[in-house]
Write a structure and sequence with these properties.
By secondary structure, this protein is an alpha/beta fold. The protein has two domains: 109 residues; 341 residues, TIM Barrel (Alpha-Beta Barrel). Helix content is 42%, strand content 15%. The strands form three sheets. Strands 14-12-10-9-8-7-6-15 form an eight-stranded parallel sheet. Helix 9 links the parallel strand 9 and strand 10. The radius of gyration is 29 Å and the shape is globular.
């Protein structure tokens, strides 16, 4: 009897020890949920890092064990991840509808099951990728994104309307000739942004302050870069630039071809001078990047210029081609200092100058040189932002506009700036199209630039023109200039 009692007691103790308690069950369920969540995060991250924005094609995605891809038109649309089986109860923490779960507005999660366990996860993109959007465009529309055009007039002319709506030119630069007053600029911008278009339009301007200022005369005068650096702190200059950016944004202008990153190292320079912040490269970098940060705070795309440095020239590139004979070491110690800093701070756009820099390319001007744009700026300096040319209607480039347009895109530029003449802009567009059709320029080269431009445009969205008080803006700027 005693032995039987001992046996029963031991059996009970064993059964009690082997039976999960409520706490054990909850702990296991929590562990399962954490594991499932980790799998979901991994799958979504894999999709984002490999095919987000559609920039990576199927052949380029990372090949991992237990991962497979589905494609459409050569683009990855779905990622499947095999997982260690997990019980279905993990889904109770998710808002499941029709056996799917919305990760966010871009991705949907679904799963496959066997014997009431989840065996694989599927992440599907809900909307078209940027690459799909670009590849679906007619070539003419894609090339329209690569052109910045000027125009004649102070309102949207029939010619400008046709260029935007029929020829898909989506970027316009404004000069003083296009601006007569505060009210007129607001009206012009409203007209422009009301034109029929598929992707955001860009209005751009040269607003450096000093002699290079296009804002309406009603707005208070902005000092030159040299005066800003000599009179004000870096923080104050950033606030001044933000005030400039606020006005541009009110006017529906999204891009400012500023700040000047050139170092004013040549007293005989006929074109830079007080447009530069200083003859000291570190001072230039500090103040120019403060100017950039101010513009960025107002949601303006800044464009540092004129790479690789226009400061040590005695020729105006509006009239002829300047030649820079410095060695790479000399350029690195002066001219390139502000540009390297700009790249490290992710300045979204850099303007290429019409300069013959013999240490980089002794034959071709920088603005049409693959050695300068692709090999040096893109590869060696690792710049991934937008590259825009200086105005190709300047006299420095003694070539037809059609030739320049094709050569600069071949060299690695993204935007061809044609400041004067809608006809020239349309000529450039047609030349690029024909170069692609002949095989002289690859569609991949064009598409890469279009995606880079549209990615930046989407960050800022469509411009909104808003009426504002000029008096209040002037008062705020005046207070900053008193500091």
């Amino acid at each position: 009897m005693y032995k039987y009692f001992v046996f029963i007691t031991l059996l009970v103790l064993m059964l009690v020890g082997c039976t999960p308690t409520n706490d054990d069950t909850k702990q296991r369920e929590q562990t399962d949920l954490e594991q499932f969540t980790a799998y979901v995060d991994d799958a979504a991250q894999l999709f984002q890092t490999n095919v987000e924005l559609g920039i990576t094609e199927e052949a380029d995605v990372v090949t991992l064990e237990d991962i497979s891809y589905e494609t459409k038109d050569g683009l990855v649309t779905k990622v499947t991840k095999q997982i260690e089986p997990l019980p279905l109860h993990v889904l109770t923490q998710y808002d499941v509808a029709n056996n799917t779960y919305a990760l966010d507005e871009r991705y949907t999660l679904s799963w496959s099951t066997t014997n009431n366990t989840i065996t694989s996860l599927h992440v599907t993109r809900n909307s078209e990728t940027l690459k799909q959007h670009v590849y679906a465009m007619p070539l003419k529309q894609r090339v329209g994104h690569l052109i910045v055009t000027g125009f004649e007039g102070t309102s949207v002319t029939p010619a400008l309307q046709e260029a935007v709506e029929q020829h898909f030119l989506s970027n316009v630069i404004l000069f003083s000739k296009n601006i007569t007053s505060h009210a007129q600029l607001l009206q012009l911008s409203e007209q422009f942004h009301a034109l029929e278009h598929a992707d955001p339009l860009w209005l751009s301007i040269d607003e450096e302050g000093g002699n290079v200022s296009r804002l309406p005369d009603e707005l208070a005068t902005i000092p030159t870069a040299a005066e800003l650096a000599s009179r004000y702190s870096v923080d104050t200059v950033q606030q001044i630039a933000e005030q400039i950016g606020k006005a541009l944004r009110h006017y529906g202008i999204q891009v400012d071809y500023a700040p000047v990153l050139d170092v004013n190292s040549n007293t005989q320079n006929p074109v830079i001078g007080t447009r530069s912040f200083s003859s000291d490269p570190e001072v230039v970098a500090n103040y120019a990047l403060a100017f950039h940060r101010g513009l960025s705070a107002a949601s303006i795309v800044s464009a540092g210029k004129h790479f690789p440095g226009h400061g040590d020239t005695n020729v105006d590139s509006h009239l002829a081609l300047p030649v820079i004979k410095k060695t790479i070491d000399e350029l690195n110690s002066v001219e390139l200092v502000p540009f390297r800093r700009a790249i490290s701070e992710n300045v979204p756009m850099l303007m290429i100058g019409h300069l013959l820099v013999s240490a980089m390319d002794g034959a071709q001007p920088a603005s049409i040189s693959k050695a300068v744009i692709t090999d040096f700026l893109r590869t060696e300096l690792a710049y991934n932002g937008i590259v825009v040319t200086d105005d190709v209607t300047m006299e420095a480039l003694d070539l037809p506009i059609s030739t320049i347009a094709v050569q600069t895109i071949q060299a690695g530029s993204d935007l061809v700036l044609i400041g004067h003449g809608l006809d020239k802009a349309l000529e450039a567009q047609q030349a690029i199209i024909e170069a692609v059709e002949r095989g002289d320029l690859s569609e991949q080269r064009v598409n890469r630039s279009v995606m880079r431009i549209l990615s930046e445009k989407r960050k800022h969205g469509e411009a909104t023109v808003t009426h504002f008080s000029v008096q209040q803006w002037n008062d705020e700027l005046t207070q900053l200039l008193k500091q």
